[in-house]
Backbone:
């Protein structure tokens, strides 16, 4: 039984820079009829129901009881005081002509003081930050912010989507092994509890669905999974799947499906936004590199077919290049081989817009997490792996990276929630 979508949905965003301001501006632009929510599967995507001969292909938003975009209220935290109009203007993602049409709405959204520690993001300096003796105190302050926001904005429900920077690489450790040890770590300022985990702890403990849009540990530790089960909170992570990795999860399954071999896949990115500046530090790049590198091995499964993939050389690079701003460029060189071992090459030059691709992903995750909460789904939401570079899974299970299998799981979950027959492409529905 899915609860109704009564009242307002508050979307809380830790990190209100390029992605968040682009998301917020986009929702206002759609609500005013200025544009369409292109890239949002929840808003623009169709879902097939029943046999193909039935010709039932409604929009997902008309099939599933999602919150309406007109019922969304935005809030969040940032290390800079800029309101959302100023943030969007500084990010230079959207045209000023568009921003001028939604200026009053954007100016009205001002970030709360953020939980920030320069040790985890060395390339950034912020003055709009909270100060407290312990990380547990900071978590309590975030929870106070959430309660105040919900009351002031009259929200019926809340979700939280991390849109902040990539933190330094941290391996899961003893402090992350149980709720008790994590809470002790918060009280004792343990160095392996980064700011993103403070936000995740606050949200999950309050029963607020949480999505992690960066490769940070955040909610991807046993303690947070246990906390999510205890408080019946949906969680999902990690790292929005947008540019180069999106291309890999589309192309690699196709090469594998045709039993074509791959000798090497070299990827490099140039971008000049705040994300690029942060990733210019080796410790922060390590988090992103780990997130990106696991994709091909999972899809290709070289142990199952060593003749095609056992010697695959996979290299990923990210370069900070300020002139590009938010317009990320991804170059891929792929050395493949076919019949009798003869070599071929594929070259990709993806001139993408980082925040333009990430904003609808953040929106969909927020809407589907709200749906999960109303459907009493809690813990890790693997059916939302479709949107993520490094999908969080139950302990001991490998993530699924093939975007077409991810899409099938997403759509079948929606069919299941609405009491429709699952589509497996077996039996008569395959032919009819």
Residues:
């Amino acid at each position: 039984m899915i609860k109704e979508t009564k009242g307002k949905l508050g979307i809380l965003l830790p990190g209100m820079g390029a992605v968040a301001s682009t998301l917020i501006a986009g929702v206002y632009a759609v609500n005013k009829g200025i544009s369409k929510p292109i890239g949002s599967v929840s808003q623009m995507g169709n879902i097939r129901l029943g046999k193909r001969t039935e010709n039932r292909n409604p929009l997902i938003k008309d099939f599933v009881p999602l919150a309406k975009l007109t019922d969304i209220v935005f809030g969040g935290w940032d290390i800079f005081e800029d309101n959302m109009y100023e943030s969007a203007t500084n990010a230079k993602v959207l045209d000023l002509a568009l921003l001028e049409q939604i200026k009053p709405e954007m100016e009205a959204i001002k970030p709360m003081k953020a939980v920030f520690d320069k040790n985890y993001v060395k390339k950034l300096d912020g003055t709009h930050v909270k100060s407290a003796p312990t990380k547990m105190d900071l978590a309590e302050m975030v929870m106070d912010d959430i309660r105040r926001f919900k009351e002031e904005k009259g929200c019926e429900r809340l979700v939280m989507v991390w849109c902040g920077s990539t933190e330094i690489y941290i391996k899961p450790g003893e402090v992350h092994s149980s709720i008790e040890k994590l809470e002790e770590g918060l009280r004792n300022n343990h160095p392996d509890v980064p700011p993103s985990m403070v936000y995740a702890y606050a949200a999950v403990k309050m029963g607020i669905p949480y999505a992690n849009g960066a490769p940070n540990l955040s909610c991807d530790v046993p303690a947070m999974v246990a906390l999510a089960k205890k408080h019946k909170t949906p969680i999902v992570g990690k790292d929005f799947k947008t540019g180069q990795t999106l291309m890999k999860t589309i192309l690699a399954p196709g090469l594998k499906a045709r039993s074509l071999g791959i000798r090497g896949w070299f990827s490099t990115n140039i971008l000049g936004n705040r994300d690029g500046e942060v990733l210019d530090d080796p410790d922060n790049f390590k988090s992103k590199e780990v997130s990106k590198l696991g994709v091909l091995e999972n899809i290709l499964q070289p142990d199952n077919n060593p003749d095609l993939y056992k010697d695959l050389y996979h290299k990923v690079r990210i370069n900070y290049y300020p002139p590009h701003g938010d317009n990320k460029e991804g170059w891929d060189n792929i050395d493949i081989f076919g019949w009798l071992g003869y070599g071929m090459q594929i070259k990709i030059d993806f001139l993408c817009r980082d925040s333009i691709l990430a904003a609808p992903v953040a929106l969909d995750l927020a809407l589907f997490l709200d749906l999960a909460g109303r459907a009493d789904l809690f813990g890790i939401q693997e059916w939302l792996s479709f949107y993520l570079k490094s999908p969080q899974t139950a302990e001991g299970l490998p993530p699924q990276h093939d975007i077409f299998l991810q899409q099938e799981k997403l759509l079948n979950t929606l069919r299941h929630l609405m009491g429709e027959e699952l589509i497996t492409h077996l039996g008569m529905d395959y032919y009819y």
